[in-house]
Q: What sequence folds into this?
């Protein structure tokens, strides 16, 4: 009987103190969810692209204070932000088991490729596809794309 009471009393106290709740703390649920995506989102490549996108978004906000959506630099910034978002989406599609591939160098390659794509976009607005500068820009992008595919096939 004493043994039963010694076992039952701590259980009773636990039930009274905890209110019989068996649900998980919302904060601990959030921590578990973040751990599932953290290897990719906390990678250097993701951070590099996110930094660039954030800088461009801040710059866009500055321009929008004085200019309309039709201003050439505003159009260019929106184009670059869209490209950077596509790069972030590409990074997020990587399996957590391959997160080690998301190095600082990969982030720099992806950001530089995006810069070159913006340059090409500007060149195409000025010249036709046969212009040497357009062809040169396309070749540069292809070089970066090849390097990126070596890391992320």
A:
């Amino acid at each position: 009987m004493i043994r039963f009471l010694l076992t039952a009393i701590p259980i009773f106290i636990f039930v009274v103190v905890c209110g019989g709740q068996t649900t998980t703390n919302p904060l601990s649920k959030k921590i578990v969810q973040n751990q599932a995506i953290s290897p990719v989102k906390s990678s250097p490549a993701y951070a590099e692209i996110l930094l660039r996108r954030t800088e461009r978004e801040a710059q866009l906000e500055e321009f929008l204070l004085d200019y309309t959506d039709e201003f050439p630099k505003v159009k260019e910034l929106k184009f670059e932000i869209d490209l950077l978002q596509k790069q972030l989406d590409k990074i997020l599609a990587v399996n957590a088991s391959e997160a080690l591939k998301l190095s600082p160098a990969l982030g720099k390659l992806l950001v530089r490729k995006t810069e070159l794509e913006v340059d090409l976009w500007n060149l195409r607005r000025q010249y036709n596809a046969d212009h040497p500068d357009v062809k040169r820009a396309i070749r540069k992008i292809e070089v970066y794309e090849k390097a990126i595919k070596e890391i992320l096939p």
